[in-house]
Amino acid sequence: MGDMTDAPQLVLGSASPRRLELLAQIGITPQKIIPADIDETPRPNEAARDYVRRMAREKAQKLRPATDGVILSADTVVVAGRRILGKPADPAEAARFLHLLSGRRHKVMTAVAVAAGDRLHERLVETTIRFAPLSDQQIKDYVASGEWQGKAGGYAIQGRAGAFAIWMQGSFSAVVGLPLAETAVLLKHAGIKGQTE
């Protein structure tokens, strides 16, 4: 892994245990985890791509004064048609999201921002997923499981909802919350390498 003393400190600007697990897959452990508390309200008529990029960027910028290390932040949204599906507020909204996604294609967009010094590098990764038609009972059971909580679009692809996805094009890890190939490249440019390199 090389000498850790000359490697910059990595700060993960997310409380997501999934992002931490994904980083571990590429041999990277952040020295600090500082969730960035920002206003996540989309602007009127803001396109999903612009919104998710802005969220990742604003999270990184919010943490800049707190550290001189490298900041990694990310944001994930599910997009059905022109609707941005964030994290459901309650079980009823989770059920509405799943009814909306049932039997159709949707996009999952994950933006990653890496801030190092006065530089900010970004990547946007889009994955297209098609869900099987879901019965009312399947949706009811899934909502009852509680797995939808804190998940964009009201589902976790790495959990029970993996059985809903019948087709996918793009990055699986991006759907979970962090596109690993792209993140590894951004971090490498900022002087942070994983144990796999």
Automatic annotation (TrEMBL):
It catalyses: dTTP + H2O = dTMP + diphosphate + H(+); UTP + H2O = UMP + diphosphate + H(+). Its EC number is 3.6.1.9. One of its GO terms (cellular component) is cytoplasm. InterPro entries: ITPase-like_fam, Maf-like. It is found in: Cytoplasm. Its main location: cytoplasm. Its cofactor is a divalent metal cation. One of its GO terms (biological process) is nucleotide metabolic process. It comes from the Bacteria. Nucleoside triphosphate pyrophosphatase that hydrolyzes dTTP and UTP. May have a dual role in cell division arrest and in preventing the incorporation of modified nucleotides into cellular nucleic acids. Belongs to the Maf family. YhdE subfamily. HAMAP family: Maf. This is dTTP/UTP pyrophosphatase.
